Design the sequence.
């Protein structure tokens, strides 16, 4: 456990002493939020929810798509 504590303290001290790195991490998190939250809403609608009314119909459609031989 002492080894894990030393590693954790190493990373905590490293993040505390960052100056430019904190801004870069903030930019990374903002980009991830935009990619996964905002773009998902506009470009990836829930087609199964809109095209099928029950869970059984959705599951049958997914099974057909997965097991379909081309």
Sequence:
């Amino acid at each position: 456990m002492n080894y894990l504590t030393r590693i954790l303290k190493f990373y905590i001290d490293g993040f505390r002493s960052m100056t430019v790195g904190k801004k870069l991490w903030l930019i990374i998190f903002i980009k991830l939020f935009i990619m996964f939250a905002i773009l998902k809403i506009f470009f990836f609608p829930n087609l199964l929810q809109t095209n099928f009314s029950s869970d059984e119909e959705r599951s049958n459609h997914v099974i057909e798509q997965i097991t379909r031989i081309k």
Q: What stands out?
A: The longest helix spans residues 20-43. The chain has a mean pLDDT of 87.
